[in-house]
Request: fold
Amino acid sequence: MTGVAEMGDVVDAIVGQWAKERPDVVEDFWPVELLARVQRLARVVDKSVKTTAAAHGIEHGEFDVLTILQRSGPPYMLPAGALLKASMVTSGAITNRIDRMEAKGLVERVREGADRRTVKIRLTEHGHEVIRVALADHLAAYAELLAGVDRRLVEQTAEGLRQVLESLGDTA
Amino acid sequence: MTGVAEMGDVVDAIVGQWAKERPDVVEDFWPVELLARVQRLARVVDKSVKTTAAAHGIEHGEFDVLTILQRSGPPYMLPAGALLKASMVTSGAITNRIDRMEAKGLVERVREGADRRTVKIRLTEHGHEVIRVALADHLAAYAELLAGVDRRLVEQTAEGLRQVLESLGDTA
DNA sequence: CTTGATAATCTCAACGTTGAAATAAAAGCA
DNA sequence: TGCTTTTATTTCAACGTTGAGATTATCAAG
Reply:
C-alpha cells in the first residue's frame, strides 16, 4: 500500500457515512458504489452538454434532437415518434422542443407521407450548420472531461457499463 | 469469436451511426462510449429512485434530502447550506424542498444557533420512519438493477468511475 | 361501409428547478 | 462605532418536463 491511489471520492465518503449509520445493512450498499457514481458523473456530463448547447444558442434538449437527426443520416428527417423513442423523454417534451426549434429555424415539420398522423421532422440548412459546429465543441468538451484518465481505463469502464445496459434491455 | 457476448447496446448503435455519418471525426468519439452510457444509465437510475420515492409519498429530491440527513448521523440535522452542497442543486431548489418537506412533517427548520443567518434542518420522527422504510426499498431496487451482472464487473466498473470522478475533483 | 380499437401527435395545467435579485446577519477593518 | 464586504437563506418569475387527456387518422373486423 503505497498510498498513491488512495484518495477517495465523494461516493466513498457517502458509503462511509452509511457504514457508520446503518451497519446493519452495510452489505446491501454495494450497488451504490456504481450507481451513485453514475448519477454524480451524469450531472457533470449534463452540465457540460448544457454549457456547450448554450454557447450555440440552444437548450440541452434541442441539442439532443439535433444530434439525433444528424446521426440518422440523409435525408436528416425522422418521424416525431422516432425522436420520442431516441430521446427518453415524454411526448409533450418532444412537441415543445420541435415547436421551439421550428421557431428558431433549426428544423421543419413535414407532413407529406401516406400516414397523415405522422409528422416528420427535418433538419434545415441552419440546423445542419448549428449542429456541425456545436458537435465539434461537444466532443472537445467530452474529451476534456476524460483528459485526466487513462484511455484504457475509459474503455474498460465503458465496457462495464455496456454490459449493465445490455442486461437492462437497453438494446437497439 | 463465438458471438456469445456480441449483442451491442443502444450506444453501440449510436456510435455506429456517427461513424457512418461523420467518418472524418470518428477518432474523437471515444469519450462518447463512456459518457453516453453514463447518461443513459443515469436516466434508468433516476426513474428507479423516483418510483421508490413515489411509493412512499415523496419526490425524488425529497428522498435525496432525507438520505443526506439520515446518513449524516445524530443529531440528524444539517445547515441548509450543507444540503445545498451535498445535493448538487441550486439554493432555490433546496428552499423549496424544505418548504414542502416541512409541510409534510418530514423535517423542521431550527433557528437556534449563534449565527442567525443559518437555518438548520432536522429530521423529524416521521421523517426518520419514512426514510428507514424507503431506504430498504431503494437498496432492493438498486440491487435489482444490477441483478443481471457479475458482481466483480460491477466493482471494477465502479472503480473506473471513481477514478474519473477523482480526476474531476469530485472529492470530499 | 360502419364500428371499435389502435396509433401518432398535440394540448395544457401542474410541477420542480434555475438563476438572479433581495433580504438579513456576521465579519473585517478603519 | 461606522462602513463595507462576505455569507446564508429566501423570493420569484421564467423555463422545460411530466402525464393525462383530447384530437385526428389508420387499421381490423364484421
Summary: The helical segments of chain B are 10-21, 30-54, 60-71, 80-87, 91-103, 125-145, 151-167. The domain at 10-166 of chain B is CATH 1.10.10.10 (Arc Repressor Mutant, subunit A).
